[in-house]
Write a structure and sequence with these properties.
240 residues, 0% strand
């Protein structure tokens, strides 16, 4: 990667913290990492983040095996298919600057809706629509967590983590397959994911002893604050 030592260290810390949150509360890696990746090296987003997220969610799913709501996950993945196709078109069509603004916008809108306290009913139609939105956002920006966290927020603990992990593992692989078919997966992003994989492993391992000690509400608030900070700096960078 064409980054300085300090920038690489920042990416490693971001991936480590994001992986810890992903395993502990079911989401967080994409929301935190995507703005930072776009700031440091835009060529890494969204592919490198999706690759890292696939590995982390696979580990989380194995840890919470048998606890996922597979029926709900199936309906969400059905909705994700058209969302993935739309997200792929955005990656192909948008210049880097507008893709960066889209990433920041997704983070900020997701946070705003979450803070507003909107709790949709967990009906089949809502899950399908959330899956569609997650597919579009996750493929274009690697941030597919907010719609699913919103529609599944009545789930608790292991069931939430397992269901989110099952959805994101399958969904990330779908997005990567679509981006590969569109010719947007390059060696640079692949190599970046390889170099940053140890940081993801470290965050995943730290999550094991820390999950039971974390206050979920405060952890979500901390993740939200980090995501907003990264998105705000990313927006400012585009207009400097």
């Amino acid at each position: 990667m064409g980054v300085t030592g300090l920038e690489f260290a920042l990416l490693c810390v971001t991936v480590g913290v994001g992986a810890l949150l992903q395993v502990s509360i079911g989401f967080g890696l994409g929301m935190i990492a995507a703005p930072v990746f776009s700031l440091v090296d835009p060529a890494l987003a969204p592919v490198a983040v999706l690759l890292l997220a696939s590995g982390v969610t696979a580990t989380a799913l194995a840890r919470e095996r048998g606890r996922a709501d597979m029926r709900g996950c199936g309906w969400a993945l059905a909705g994700r298919v058209p969302g993935v196709l739309a997200g792929t078109l955005l990656v192909v069509a948008l210049p880097t600057r507008y893709l960066a603004l889209l990433i920041a916008g997704v983070v900020l809108v997701g946070v705003a809706v979450s803070m507003a306290g909107y709790v949709p009913r967990q009906r089949r139609s809502a899950v399908v629509l959330a899956g569609m939105a997650s597919g579009l956002m996750g493929t274009a920006t690697s941030i597919g967590g907010p719609p699913m966290a919103m529609v599944w927020q009545r789930l608790r603990g292991p069931e939430l983590r397992a269901t989110m992990s099952a959805f994101f593992l399958a969904g990330s692989l779908m997005s990567l397959a679509a981006l590969t078919a569109a010719g947007t997966v390059g060696a640079h992003a692949l190599w970046g994911a390889v170099l940053l994989a140890p940081a993801a492993v470290a965050g995943t391992l730290l999550a094991r002893p820390l999950t039971s000690r974390l206050n979920v509400r405060r952890t979500r608030m901390a993740a939200t604050a980090m995501a907003v900070a990264g998105a705000s700096v990313l927006v400012a960078q585009q207009f400097v």
